[in-house]
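Morning, I've got a small favour to ask if you have a moment. It would help a lot if you went through both lines with me. Thanks so much in advance, here it is.

***
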Amino acid sequence: MLGMQGKYPVITLCGSTRFKDQFMEVQKKLTLEGKIVISVGLFGHSGDYEVWENMDEGTLTKTKEMLDDIHKRKIDMSDEIFVINVGGYIGDSTRSEIEYALAHGKKVRYLEEQK
C-alpha cells in the first residue's frame, strides 16, 4: 500500500535517539532506495542537550509527551516504520510506537533481526 505520495513509500524511523549515527545511516540508505524518510526531530540522548537543560520538570514532561504524540502523527503519515534496534535494544517509547504502528496496519521493519 502506498500513501498519497505515489511511487515513493513513506517510512518513519523509530528507535532510541542514542543511536544518532545509525539513524543517519539508515536515512541515507532508504532515501537512496527511493523512500520518503521521516526521522526524529531531535536527538535528546545524543546531542541536543541545550533543548532540555533549562526546562523545569513540568515543562520537560509536557515536551516529552508532545514529542511522543508528534512521532505518532508521523507514523500516521507513513506506509511503514523502520526500527533502529541496535544490539536488539528497544525502549518503552519505541515499543509503544511499534504497537501503535501495528494497530494502525503499518508494516514494521527492523535494523537488526528480532530474536
Q: What stands out?
A: Residues 10-110 form one domain. The longest strand covers residues 10-15. The helical segments are 20-32, 57-76, 92-103.
